[in-house]
Every structure is written in C-alpha cells, then in structure tokens.
C-alpha cells in the first residue's frame, strides 16, 4: 500500500515524513502543556497555598475549557488570512504565556495565565487539522491523521517523565521554561519550512454571521453531528481520566514516583494503536474501524466498572484495562474526526474550528465534572467511561441512520491545493 503524498504546495518544502512530524509537534505542544504538569500538581499547589486536593485539578481543567472556547476563532481567521500567519501568532502566544506561568506568584495568577495559554493552544489544535484537510480527503485523510497522532502520542509518553525529571533538579516553574523552549523550536521550524496550504479560491471574509452559519451547518449536518458530539463524550471521559490521574494512579493506587513511567507506558501503547490504525484504515474504512473500536470500548468500560464496584481493583488490574480503553480511543478519535470533517471541503478551516469548539468545550466541561467527582476510588471514572461509550454509540447510530460498519467513501486520492 503506497503512502499518501502531500499536496504540491507542501511538497515544495516538506517531504511526507517531515510534514507528519511538524503537524504532530504542533498538536503535541498542547499535550505538553497538560501532561508535563501532572507530576508537579502536588508541589505547585503546596507552594502556592492550595490545600483542596481537587482544586489543583483546575490547572488542567481550566486550560482545557479555554482551549475549547478559543477553538471557534483560529479556523475562521485562517480561512481569511491563511494558515501560516494565524499559526505563527498562536505559537507566539504559547511562548509568551508559558513564560508568564513560570513567573506566576499566586495560584489565581497561574490559573489566569493557564486560561490564556488554553486560548493560544486552540490554534495549535485546529490549524493542523485544517492543513491536513487542505491536502487530503476520505480514508487517506484518516490515515494521515493517524500517522500524525502516532507521532503526537510520543509527547504524552515522555511529558510526565520530563516534568518529574525537572522536579529532581529544579522547581516546577522550570517545567514551563522547558515548554517555552519547545514552543520557540516549533515556531522556528514552522516559520522556516511550512508553506501556505490554503487555496486562494477558498479564502473567505470574516463575519459573525459566517461563523454562526458554519457552526449551524456543523450542528445540523446529520452525517457529521453524531461523530462530533460522540467524540465529545469519549474525549470528555479521557479528560476526566487526565484530570484525576495523578490522584487516582499516583496516590490512591500508590504508584508514587512510578506514576510518570506508568502514564508514559500507557501513552506508548496508545501510540502503537495509531500506527495500526494508519495501516488498516484505508483497507477497511474509517467507519468500520471506529465502529468496531467503539463497541469494544463499551465492553472494556463495562469490565472496568464491574471491577471498580467489586472493591477488588488494584493498580495492576486498573492499568491494563485503562490502557486498552486508551488504545480504543486511538482508533475512535482520528477516524471520527476525519468522518466529521469530510462534508466540509470548501470551509475546512472554519468547520475544523466549529467542530473543535463544540468538541472541546463539551469534553473539557465533562472532564472537569468527572475530575471533581473523584472520591478516592476509580468508580466515578469507570462509570463515566461506560456512559460516554453508550452515548457515543447512540449518536453514531443517529448519523448513520441506524446502521454501523458502512463504507460510504472510496479510497481517497490526495487532492491538490494549488
């Protein structure tokens, strides 16, 4: 099976491997902003005078909520001014705000800067998807997104260990310093190597009405609706796990200093899942792969809930089951995203923003709710995983007229943008 080739515009600067690596690193900066902080939550909350264990989760939860709120803007700006200038502006904001977080003198100030950082990261989430959509269609787009996700997942694998390593030699503020350095490196790479991918014919003026129309189209387009909102539920359960994982795995299950290694190992297995998805999605289709993964996810979540309720759950019983669910999320995520964006070729940037806005706002709020429901056991998380799977299945059935495993799009060819 031949690998998809980038559009002619991209090919003049980037080969396929560099293109995948750059798209992955742009998205990974957001993961770095979340996962590298996990080992430091206890330390920074103690230093800044926070005594409520669940309140420390706001460092992650508010960041994710504002990343969702900001997602509506960058795609629309990018459809008017192009992908490059908006992306470089987001990267500049990332560097400035991570530096501000490093200098924060109170927990409230830190939360304020984290909210701003979330807004900046919205562009780093939305625009790589639009750039990929500029160049690919159908199952090939799903395959490329899986390849990007595979590289992207290396960051969650190493970020907690990086944060833990920084804590061994310096304070938690230097974690933000490392983030700022990484932002500078990726910004330089983008400025020097990434060409503009927006087709001039697809440039659109900015207007509140246009934003509302695109948001409305996303919300009422049946073939996209179930996948956008279904993924919001699945991602919400994932964010609930991320919000509470330091308390659940590190403290309740007693992982201690092994927590970064366990978290990273789970992310490594999830990265392998994205590699497998990239290899099989063109053969079997994004729908077939993601629908099968969703059913398996529900079964695995049911097993997690049964074990959590039984009171017999231990660290080494929790980790394999949760790892399997993370893997299944990998099969679901990239494929749901490509299916949902497929009907919006001419407004890919605005549609990607609208979908990311809906998905991120809902999922981050759901994740914060799940995190705050943490009661010292794995029961709230397990119940949330199963509920998210059941809700996503109902939404997908709505979009697919009650039928699963259909393949509506043939194997797609790369679509030129110039």
Structure explained in plain terms:
- The chain is mainly alpha-helical and 418 residues long.
- 77% of the residues lie in helices and 0% in strands.
- It contains 17 helices and no strands.
- It has helices at 8-11, 16-35, 41-47, 58-69, 74-81, 83-102, 107-135, 138-152, 154-169, 173-193, 208-220, 222-252, 259-284, 286-310, 315-341, 348-372, 379-399.
- Helix 4 (58-69) runs antiparallel to helix 16, helix 13 runs parallel beside helix 15 and helix 14 runs antiparallel to helix 15 (315-341).
- The relative contact order is 0.17.
Topology of helices and strands:
Blueprint: H1 8-11, H2 16-35, H3 41-47, H4 58-69, H5 74-81, H6 83-102, H7 107-135, H8 138-152, H9 154-169, H10 173-193, H11 208-220, H12 222-252, H13 259-284, H14 286-310, H15 315-341, H16 348-372, H17 379-399
Helix pairs in contact: 2-7, 2-8, 2-9, 2-10, 4-7, 4-16, 5-6, 5-16, 6-7, 6-10, 7-16, 8-13, 8-15, 9-13, 11-16, 12-15, 12-16, 12-17, 13-14, 13-15, 14-15, 14-17
| CATH architecture level-2 label | Up-down Bundle
Principal-axis shape equals globular
The CATH C-level class name: Mainly Alpha
Summed over residues and divided by their number, the pLDDT gives a mean of: 84
Which features does this protein show?
418 residues; Growth Hormone, Chain: A; 17 helices; globular; disordered C terminus; mainly alpha
Outline of the structure:
This protein is mainly alpha-helical and 418 residues long. It has 17 helices and no strands.
